[in-house]
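Bumping my old thread because nobody answered last time. Still need a sequence for this structure:
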């Protein structure tokens, strides 16, 4: 009986110590983020993206000022918090990066290869134009509430597909989005793993992308975040701008509905 009491006490002390250590770690990580947040380098991407938006380029020698992101031609204010959405002119649901691919081809006359061959900046090389444009457009929705439409049948279909992808497990390690993002208080190394079945966490997380990654020295978009997630799950390489990625973005964005958007943010 005494031995059982002693063991119980020791276990209790151990778990208290673990919880205290986790609290200390979380506090330390937050302090690190707070220090970094003073002067986010992403603002440089925002300024460059704004310049690109108004610059005439391509075979047609035009800017993107007539690109309709869902709020009317040329309107960027508040567009990001309502994407992905259905676009009647192409009769499909698009996220921001898909829509930019379409606009750059249709308005500026660039080829599909021109606008998709270099979506993510490689270390030590020239910054991807798409990442700068996304940073600018996303920044124009700061302080607004996520408001993802599911009014059109195609939007509902895309959401349903994204939900299926989120819960789908496969690959050599039987991984899926749910492996990392379906429970509270999970962490890999020092990185917190948000629970997308918890709306508060979903809002906070989705509302902070795109983000400047300190480890990469670049701004990374949601397309890149999911591209890297699939790589870590040992899935086949995701195709940039594919409808499957847009579907997953639709599900994640809708999970964050009502949350205040606050990006580009800063990540480790």
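Sorry it took so long. Here it is:
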């Amino acid at each position: 009986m005494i031995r059982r009491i002693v063991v119980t006490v020791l276990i209790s002390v151990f778990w208290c110590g673990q919880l205290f250590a986790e609290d200390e770690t979380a506090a330390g990580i937050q302090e690190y983020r707070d220090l970094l947040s003073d002067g986010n380098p992403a603002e440089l991407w925002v300024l460059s993206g704004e310049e690109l938006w108004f610059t005439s380029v391509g075979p047609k020698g035009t800017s993107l000022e007539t690109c309709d992101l869902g709020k009317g031609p040329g309107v960027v204010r508040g567009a990001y918090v309502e994407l992905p959405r259905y676009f009647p002119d192409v009769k499909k649901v698009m996220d921001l990066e898909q829509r930019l691919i379409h606009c750059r081809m249709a308005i500026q006359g660039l080829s599909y290869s021109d606008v998709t061959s270099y979506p993510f900046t490689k270390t030590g090389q020239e910054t991807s134009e798409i990442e700068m444009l996304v940073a600018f457009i996303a920044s124009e929705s700061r302080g607004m509430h996520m408001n993802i439409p599911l009014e059109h049948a195609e939007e509902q279909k895309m959401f349903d597909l994204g939900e299926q992808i989120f819960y789908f497990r496969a690959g050599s390690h039987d991984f899926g989005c749910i492996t990392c993002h379906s429970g509270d208080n999970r962490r890999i190394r020092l990185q917190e793993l948000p629970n997308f079945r918890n709306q508060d966490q979903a809002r906070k997380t989705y509302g902070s992308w795109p983000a400047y990654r300190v480890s990469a020295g670049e701004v990374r978009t949601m397309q890149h975040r999911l591209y890297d997630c699939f790589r870590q799950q040992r899935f086949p390489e995701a195709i940039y701008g594919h409808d499957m990625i847009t579907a997953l973005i639709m599900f994640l964005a809708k999970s964050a509905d009502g949350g205040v958007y606050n990006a580009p943010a800063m990540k480790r």
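The radius of gyration is 21 Å. Let me know if any region looks off to you.
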